[in-house]
Design a protein that fits this description.
about 190 residues, alpha/beta, Glutaredoxin, six-stranded mixed beta sheet, two-stranded antiparallel sheet, 8 strands, antioxidant activity, cytochrome c-type biogenesis, Thioredoxin_domain, Thiol-disulfide isomerase or thioredoxin, Thioredoxin_ResA/DsbE_sf
């Protein structure tokens, strides 16, 4: 009986400290949209798929450029560009991190898992890390239409916010090199 009570007490303390750490971690994050030029803090996300951990922090990719690719499993335009994103990740993996962000209202964990399994069985596996319904992304990176891309330099500053037309090798090379992108801004 004492062991059971001790176990429950320890488990409760662990959960409390984890929740408290996450709260403190996110306290320095603003509650409004980031814009080009803003420095993005070390955001932390839960519900991560295709990743070594169920959590992901932007600092996991320190020194790399990052592209946040907002998409949905039902978005045909998004899926058209996914193979290109995987190729860019493969080619520039040591200097670039591409993270898929599925914050579509209609996607659930089951829908995502079924979708990923189907793609894998068809020989079109998606290997990029995926954030499912991450908290606050619609506040920080507002958008109404998929696909939506947020380009973050290795200096953690937002360099561009675009649609798919700007996903070109030249622009990705410029992002990685730390050069100005001068790309048209996608209106939500």
């Amino acid at each position: 009986m004492k062991k059971t009570i001790l176990f429950i007490a320890m488990a409760t303390l662990c959960l409390f400290f984890k929740a408290n750490a996450q709260l403190k971690y996110q306290q320095n994050v603003k509650n409004e949209a980031f814009v080009i030029g803003d420095k993005v803090p070390d955001l932390m996300f839960d519900s991560v798929y295709n990743h070594i951990s169920k959590t992901l922090k932007l600092s996991d990719y320190k020194g790399k450029a990052i592209i946040l690719d907002f998409w949905g499993t039902w978005c045909s335009t998004c899926l058209k560009y996914t193979p290109h994103m995987q190729e860019f990740q493969k080619k520039y993996g040591d200097r670039l991190a591409i993270i898929l962000v599925d914050d579509a209202k209609r996607d659930t964990e089951k829908i995502l898992m079924d979708f990923l399994e189907k793609r894998k069985s068809e020989g079109r596996e998606i290997t990029l890390p995926i954030l499912l319904k991450p908290k606050n992304t619609r506040i920080w990176f507002p958008h109404n239409v998929f696909p939506h891309y947020v380009w973050i330099g290795a200096d953690q500053r937002i360099k561009a916010i675009t649609g798919p037309d700007e996903l070109k090798e030249e622009n990705i090379s410029r992002l990685i090199a730390g050069l100005n992108l001068h790309l048209p801004v996608k209106e939500r």
